[in-house]
Amino acid sequence: MKLSDSLDAGSAGLTGSVAGFHFSAVRPETLGATEYTLVTLVLDKTGSVAAFAPALFGITQAVVEACRRSPRADYLLLRLVEFASEVDEVHGFKPLADILGGDYLTPACHGLTALNDALFAAVSASNAYGQRLAEQDYLANAIVIVATDGDDNASHTRVADLRAELQRGVQAEHLESLRSVLVGINAGQHSASLQAFQQAAGLDQYVDVADATPQKLAQLAAFVSRSISAQSQALGTGGPSQALTF
């Protein structure tokens, strides 16, 4: 299946499906710039994050507010995904100006950890939408940031398939670059396996936040915002941004 075949026009935007994972996006003809960074935040909502869920899911609004203050704010399209046993899109790729405070609520946290599926869904959507933008002469790059407290125990996606998908959009020249960051929060005993997964899947960076304190999660929000800004600033250089220190 061609990635471009996965997108259909709707009245409010584009909707699509890649390998069974659904996503949506703003229609390119409504955009006002000629280049965009596709930002996807992927947050774990399994039962084990319930104790710190309000603070964890509060980082999204903090990231949005920080990005709105960025000189690159008009060149960002943000998508939010949550996952447990299944992968759920909260909203598709859309400009910061179209995001409302009510878009971000703390979900019910339960279920297993389909980490591979969540990452594959995020990357494949970025590749598919990046292709649609490229076909309409937009320049685009992407960044995917996933935060989890545990190792995968529920996915159908193989690590090899995820690794290939991470390379696909750039190799096909639909995206100038794609940066991927795996964040471990309260990962504890899973930290070593998450680092091994990062290497096996070909993710660019692993960040260990350690304890999910309000201070650490505020630091994470700042790190995510800076990473988004750096990748957006790299657009047009021919490559991705450099890894930032947490």
What would you say this structure looks like, in words?
The chain is α/β, with parallel strands linked by helices and 246 residues long. It has a single domain (35-234), classed as von Willebrand factor, type A domain (Rossmann fold). Helices cover 33% and strands 26% of the residues. It has 5 helices and 9 strands, in the order ββββαββαβαβαβα. It has helices spanning 53-68, 115-135, 159-171, 191-201, 214-234; strands at 7-9, 14-18, 21-25, 35-44, 76-83, 87-95, 139-148, 178-185, 205-210. A 6-stranded mixed beta sheet has the order 6-5-4-7-8-9, sandwiched between helices. It has a 3-stranded antiparallel beta sheet with strand order 1-2-3, with helices on one face. It is globular, with a radius of gyration of 16 Å.
Gist of the model:
With 246 residues, the protein is an alpha/beta fold. The chain has five helices and nine strands, in the order E-E-E-E-H-E-E-H-E-H-E-H-E-H.
Notable traits:
246 residues, alpha/beta, Rossmann fold, 6-stranded mixed sheet, 3-stranded antiparallel sheet, 5 helices, disordered N terminus
- Helix percentage range: 25-40%
Largest sheet: 6 strands, mixed
The secondary-structure class comes to: alpha/beta
Strand order of the largest sheet: 6-5-4-7-8-9
CATH topology: Rossmann fold
List the secondary-structure elements in sequence, H or E.
EEEEHEEHEHEHEH
Can you identify the CATH class?
Alpha Beta
* CATH architect. name: 3-Layer(aba) Sandwich
Shape: globular
Distance between the termini: 38 Å
Q: Please mark out the parts with pLDDT under 50 across 5 or more consecutive residues, or reply none.
A: 1-6
CATH H level, superfamily name: von Willebrand factor, type A domain
- Tally the structural domains: 1
Number of helices: 5
**Can you give the mean pLDDT?**
93
Spatial extent as radius of gyration: 16 Å
What portion of residues belong to β-strands? 25-35%
